[in-house]
TrEMBL record:
Keyword list, A-Z: WD repeat
Pfam families given in the database record: WD40
Organism annotation: Medicago truncatula
Signal peptide segment: none
PROSITE patterns: WD_REPEATS_2
Lineage, uppermost ranks: Eukaryota, Viridiplantae, Streptophyta, Embryophyta, Tracheophyta
Residues in WD repeats: 417-439
InterPro entries: WD40/YVTN_repeat-like_dom_sf, WD40_repeat_dom_sf, WD40_rpt, WDR62
Protein name (Swiss-Prot/TrEMBL): Putative transcription factor WD40-like family
Length: 470
């Protein structure tokens, strides 16, 4: 007797996973970090996820295209002026630009058209349009998903490294290898026939034309970052000093900062005296330039006067016994052989005179720059600086078996695990430590956000010393 089998098998039920927390980041340049100078939130990349970090509350929210079967890594991110909408560009072939509503964490628009990946992205000042760069420059009406126009910014086909709008939204600026161009935005007109009478009316489309500029910049200059001025009611003095024009700042990889008026002429420039410059950010009062060897230089808008610098430091101080780091101690005779500090690859201003900086070792620092002569760390996010090879659960404080799911069964011992990486470190983590740290946030300003790193074992032939994480 043959057994009967159902022709249609019921698909197995799969519980929907909810992303609670992200440890680490994949931001590699200034295009992978965005913020709003009027809020305490910044956005950075972690693989195919955009992480929104609220510095005041120390909380994360996550933007992800969860309805997709496969996700692509993200390469760039931008915030609208009001901070509500977040856009991110994908890497790889047939890539898209995704736009989320940060209040609902849902995708509100997917813009398709890029063939070889999106490298940079920017909202227009009024939030109506979005410009994205890759092999071509695309101008979108992102709410409707309509592609207004696209054009090739460089005849050589080289990738555009930075794109942005002027503050008055009359220009799009593109920058890259031996490339800095201005493009005018003009409303196109069309003629309509109405009862035998012809009339000209503005259409909803925009026309883009290259605007020739007398920049007097060396032809071999390669630009890494551009930024427009930030005008508010409190910055009228800067506006008057700029002569009513709308300055644009451009930074070269060799470390030259240019001030360019919307009249398309270079008004001023300054040599930063660094080996390399990576990113640029502007606020009402300051301009920040992220440079090599962990240096961020600060200048005044318009006048470009140097006012201070922020230096990455590996010095650690003692605060709490439960927040420790183990790292190598080098003998004094080898002090000149110490490796260079990680580069500052991205920076963005936040509200309340804060500056977020991402370094090439994948760490994120929030600096208080109320006193530019003595910037202080507010928060630090640490992670591995290279790929993670393995992850293992560890026993809780009560020495229960790691496989017993202690927290789910009411154990108060916490959840801890260890990770090892190609950067030569083994890190110990405790997910539940965050709530304990937040209780003492006022006393411990330099707490770690998110999961706390209990320890860091660096594989080295040198001695290992216990010190405190800051």
């Amino acid at each position: 007797m043959k057994t009967t089998r159902s022709r249609f098998k019921k698909p197995p039920t799969v519980s929907k996973l909810v992303l609670e927390e992200v440890i680490g980041l994949t931001t590699k340049s200034g295009n992978g970090l965005a913020s709003n100078v009027s809020s305490s939130k910044c956005a950075y990349l972690a693989g195919s996820v955009v992480v929104i970090l609220d510095v005041n509350s120390g909380t994360q929210s996550h933007l992800i295209a969860s309805d997709r079967l496969s996700l692509k890594p993200l390469s760039c991110v931008a915030l609208s002026k009001d901070g509500r909408f977040v856009a991110a560009g994908e890497t790889g072939n047939q890539s898209s630009v995704l736009v989320w509503d940060s209040s609902t964490l849902s995708v509100v628009s997917e813009l398709k058209g890029h063939l070889l990946g999106v490298t940079c992205i920017c909202f227009s000042p009024n939030g109506k349009h979005l410009v994205s760069g890759g092999g071509y420059i695309y101008l979108w009406d992102w709410r409707s998903g309509h592609l207004i126009t696209k054009f090739q910014a460089t005849s050589s086909g080289s990738t555009v490294s930075s794109v942005g709008f002027s503050s008055d939204a009359k220009f799009i600026v593109t920058a890259g290898k031996k490339h800095l161009k201005f493009w005018t935005l003009e409303s196109s007109r069309k003629t309509q026939q109405n009862g035998g009478m012809r009339r000209t009316a503005r259409s909803a489309s925009l026309a883009i034309h290259e605007k020739l500029a007398n920049l007097s910049i060396e032809k071999d200059c390669s630009f890494t970052s551009i930024a427009s001025s930030v005008w508010t009611n409190s910055s009228d003095d800067n506006r008057k000093q700029a002569g009513g024009l709308f300055p644009i700042y451009a930074l070269t990889d060799s470390g030259i900062l240019y001030l360019i008026h919307s009249g398309l002429s270079v008004k001023k420039s300054v040599i930063l005296k660094v080996q390399r410059a990576f990113a640029l950010s502007t606020s009402e009062k300051l301009i920040a330039c992220a440079c090599n060897n962990g240096t961020v230089l600060l200048y005044t808008p318009v006048s470009l006067e140097y006012v201070g610098s922020i230096l990455y430091s590996k010095a650690k101080k003692f605060y709490e016994e439960n927040n420790t780091v183990y790292h190598a101690v080098f003998p004094e005779q080898n002090s000149q052989q110490l490796p260079a500090l990680p580069d500052a690859v991205a920076c963005q201003f936040l509200a309340f005179e804060k500056l977020v900086v991402i370094y090439s070792d994948h760490s994120l620092y929030i600096w208080d720059i109320h006193d530019v002569n003595q910037a202080t760390k507010c928060f630090v996010l640490v992670s591995h600086s290279s790929c993670i090879w393995d992850i293992k659960n560890l026993c809780c404080e009560n020495m229960h078996d790691p496989s017993l799911a202690c927290t789910a069964k009411g154990c108060s011992g916490g959840i801890s695990f260890a990770t090892c990486s190609a950067d030569g470190t083994i890190r110990l983590w405790d997910i539940s430590l965050q709530s304990d740290l937040s209780k003492d946030a006022k006393e411990l300003k330099n707490e770690l956000l998110g999961s706390s790193c209990l320890g860091n074992l660096r594989l080295s032939k040198f001695s290992i010393q216990l010190c405190q994480n800051k």
